[in-house]
């Protein structure tokens, strides 16, 4: 399926996404209090909308292609923000969606950290011992002309 093809209706299978997302938002130290409040409110509103429309929360194994759903919604977001640019209210719209953009950045960073954990810090050996003198008394070889 492509970004232009609707997904099938969801099925009630898997875990509910909303409680886990709300817990992640609440515990995430990368968000300030205002961002947490804005995200919490938005997620709760979208949860209520989904319950009214589909009769179930967003589920992890709902039978839909998550990648396609996300791409379709991202495309809609881009079009709405661009529409705001065309009508002269982009600043206000961008302020409204900024918490979501920040959350996506944090999710991307956390996923990158999960997939590519930092290698343990290894202390590099010193080229010169403490005191800065060579380990031997000989002078290092010189290049011709130096």
Question: What does it look like?
Answer:
There is one protein chain. With 146 residues, the chain is mostly helical. It has a domain at 17-115. The protein has helices at residues 17-27, 33-54, 66-86, 90-115. Helix 1 (17-27) packs antiparallel against helix 2. The longest helix is centred in the last third of the chain and has 26 residues, at 90-115. It is globular, with a radius of gyration of 26 Å. The model has no long low-confidence stretch (mean pLDDT 87).
SSE layout:
Layout (H helix, E strand, L loop, with lengths): L16 H11 L5 H22 L11 H21 L3 H26 L31
Helix pairs in contact: 1-2, 2-4, 3-4
A few lines on this structure:
With 146 residues, the chain is mostly helical. The protein contains 4 helices and no strands.
Helical percentage: 40-55%
Quote the average pLDDT: 87
The helix count comes to 4
Task: Name the structural class.
Answer: mainly alpha
Radius of gyration from the CA trace? Answer: 26 Å
- List the quaternary state of the chains: single chain
| Outline type | globular
Sequence of secondary-structure elements? HHHH
Output the keywords.
single chain, 146 residues, mainly alpha, 4 helices, 55% helix, 0% strand, globular
